[in-house]
Design brief:
Blueprint: H1 7-14, H2 20-32, H3 34-49, H4 59-72
Length: about 80
């Protein structure tokens, strides 16, 4: 059975977000398919070229977001 991988699958693999069984299937496919390996290499290079961004929200903003989200929660039980 042929396994098809999307860019999303490869990106999940790159970021370590793939489930262990998905990562295993991806690694097996990478070993068997040089085109897929090339695509992974291109995506890895693209990821490395992304700027590193740190988000530092103020405590006031975080508190406001948490307060808002707690008001938006449906009443439970």
């Amino acid at each position: 059975m042929k396994q098809n991988f999307t860019q999303i699958d490869l990106i999940s693999y790159i970021y370590g977000e793939a489930k262990p069984e998905e990562a295993d299937r991806t690694e097996d496919a990478l070993a068997a398919d040089p085109v897929l390996s090339d695509e992974l290499e291109e995506l890895t290079l693209a990821q490395a070229a992304l700027p590193r961004i740190r988000f530092n929200a103020s405590k006031r903003l975080l508190r406001s977001l948490l307060d808002y989200s707690s008001r938006m929660q449906p009443a439970c039980c």
